[in-house]
UniProtKB/TrEMBL annotation:
Belongs to the UPF0065 (bug) family. This is Tripartite tricarboxylate transporter substrate binding protein. SUPFAM superfamilies: Periplasmic binding protein-like II. Pfam families: TctC.
Amino acid sequence: MNPRRRHILGAMLAAPILAGRARAADRPLRIVVPFQSGSATDTAARIIGENLSRSLSRAVLIDNKPGAEGYIAVKEVMKADPSGDVLLFSTNTAITGINTFNAKPIYDPLTELSPIGRVGEFPFLLVVNTGLPFMTARAFVEYARANPKKLTYASGSSSSIVAMAQLMGMAGLELHHIPYNSEPPAVVDLVGGRIDVMFATPTTTMGFIKEGKVRALMTTTRTRLEQFPDVPTMTDSGYTNMPLVPWGGFFGPSGMRPELRRKLSAEINAVLAQPDVARALAVHHISISTSGPDEFSAYVKEQLALSLQVVKEHGLGRN
């Protein structure tokens, strides 16, 4: 074949592939988050999304869809095309919590979503309004035990409900529960004295702690947090570590091709391996623990079983 004709033919064959790549680059990658702006999940999504945008040379949009324990965000991703243009970044609240708190699972995250990869774990702090006299977790427990249902606790997610239920079960406490659809407004009410206590992430509380508006009594992490070396762990405070801890990861719509899931997982993991990303997440005490799609699917399955066990043990299920 004439070399010139071979070159023209090669260019013609390559044109659709190049055009497809160009179209993909022109479309933004939308990451749906089930909590409002300022939450730990939203903060992590923005850190990862900003760096993913640079590595992909593609715009990344964070789309906050709070409410219904994360199911609004989940449904948004479920109805999306499985092309990889729309992903869900969620903690276990919208994945395992919603499917074990209710008498029947709301949906199946292993078949109605496509697990892509785990990102890591999110810690909780037990925090109280500074108008209360408790300086230690022990003092809080002693007061709450002597005054059943007098203290109020807030929850911004099912994970925080589970965390408090585990502590109440261990310590024999009865607190009055006030639920919120996200953590930031709950923390605002904690600062304002309308709520007494809650489990919350360092992301939404560390500024208030440093300003003396909220007091941290202990952390759910296995070791003390670097930014709060004086805040004891649960073990330091005389309690065992909780079996169920918050985690986060990426999911796509169902029907996503396995090779696309693996490609997206590899791209996200490469971003998480960057030192500046790890440092940015570490500021919020988010510990990175990555996985591929198959490993993540197995992890989600295990977490569903563990969450159901904890919910049944503490009587958290709904009819």
